[in-house]
Design a protein that fits this description.
- The protein has 371 residues and is an alpha/beta fold.
- It is 40% helix and 19% strand.
- It contains 13 helices and eleven strands.
- A hairpin with a 2-residue loop joins strand 4 and strand 5.
Length: 371
């Protein structure tokens, strides 16, 4: 087969057609997005980007849209932010105000680290306060998206990330409270999720009806898995909502990838029920509990995406990365597969070793991932 462009390769992969080689996705966005550093403006990433261009590394350009507060863009909801500087830290207070309802989140910044010290929802009944705020469906402008799509060209595909209902809930409360409430207050959590699901689904419909896509990256499922939440609750708190989203996306002829970090082994049946086009990322022991081969056996020819650990890119030697890539390809190429790190790029500086390891991943993947 003649060499394909990244766009052609990815489209054919999603369509289940033959491709020239396994796609390689570094998670680098082509356009800036808040969850990652802008690798195109940081000099230490330049050697890696040179290899990206040389080998035609595949890009899924992750984009998002302003979905307001809990998927409401009502102008009646007032948002305020206050910054308090205290010696070596900055305290940021975000307030959501509607009439006599005031919801506040407090975040502390120290150096490059941030921590939410007071979540928006601190008592279970605060969820009802959130739902009592006026709801107006977000209707963002798409002109920037289509401009960026044109700029991306044949380098890859645009990928939309607006999350799922569980991601909304998880962002409002502390990890500890979420885990406790999943045991003691599950009915109230589900009521909240049911309401938010209708809002989320409306937003997906709006995007799809306007030709936004073709790939959707759905984040949130990992919050309903072990060890935080019992696997027996995965379908109730997550899978049934994400399946509705995935089915909707598929009905418009577009594709979905569910993102899931951590222990996957005990909720594979839930992932199979959701039935996305792809799953990122399958983490083998000791970080997770599921190998690519185990996921393949449970999920069939679903596109599996992974699974070079980000920490390995910073700590292993080039030869070790190359051997790891070969082993991962042997497992992954038992079906449709995308070679990818599990995370990143997060850092504004990467060492020469990490540069070389990224390049080793690209070179080895390009050579041994031929089909």
């Amino acid at each position: 087969m003649k060499p394909l462009t990244s766009k052609e390769r990815l489209i054919r992969l999603f369509q289940g057609k033959d491709i020239d080689r396994v796609p390689i996705w570094l998670l680098f966005p082509f356009h800036p997005i808040g969850c990652y550093v802008d690798v195109y403006k940081i000099p230490c990433y330049r050697p890696v980007l040179d290899a990206v261009e040389k080998y035609g590394v595949d890009i899924l350009d992750r984009r998002n849209f302003n979905t307001g507060f809990c998927f409401s863009s009502s102008s009646e909801i007032e948002r305020m932010q206050e910054h308090i500087v205290e010696r070596d830290k900055v305290i940021i207070k975000d307030k959501i105000i509607y009439k006599d309802i005031v919801l506040e989140q407090e975040k502390t910044l120290m150096g490059n680290r941030s921590q939410i010290t007071k979540p928006v929802v601190r008592e279970i009944d605060d969820l009802e306060k959130v739902l009592s705020l006026p709801y107006e469906p977000p209707r963002p402008d798409f002109s920037k998206f289509f401009k960026e799509k044109e700029e991306l060209g044949d380098r890859g595909l645009m990928m939309v990330d607006i999350g799922d209902p569980l991601g909304v809930l998880y962002s409002l409360c502390s990890i500890e409270q979420f885990c406790i409430w999943s045991l003691q207050e599950r009915g109230k959590l589900i009521h909240f999720l049911d309401v938010v699901y209708e809002r989320v689904l409306d937003m997906y419909k709006y995007l799809l009806e306007n030709g936004i896509g073709p790939v959707y990256f759905i984040v949130g499922a990992e919050f309903a898995g072990p060890p935080m939440v019992s696997p027996s609750y995965f379908n109730e708190l997550c899978a049934r909502y994400v399946k509705g989203i995935v089915d909707l996306i598929r009905s418009y002829g577009m594709w979905s990838i569910v993102h899931y970090h951590g222990n996957l082994g005990k909720i594979l049946e839930g992932i199979k029920y959701i039935n996305p086009d792809g799953l990122h990322t399958i983490e083998a022991p000791p970080v997770g509990d599921c190998t690519i081969l185990e996921a393949r056996e449970a999920l069939g020819d679903m596109i599996l995406i992974g699974n070079i650990q980000y920490d390995d890119l910073s700590s292993l030697e080039e030869s070790e990365i190359s051997e790891l890539v070969k082993e991962i390809l042997r497992e992954g190429m038992t079906g449709r597969f995308i070679l990818s790190p599990t995370a990143g790029p997060y850092e504004s500086y990467i060492s020469p070793k990490m540069q070389r390891n990224y390049i080793a991943l690209i070179e080895t993947g390009s050579e041994f991932g031929r089909l």
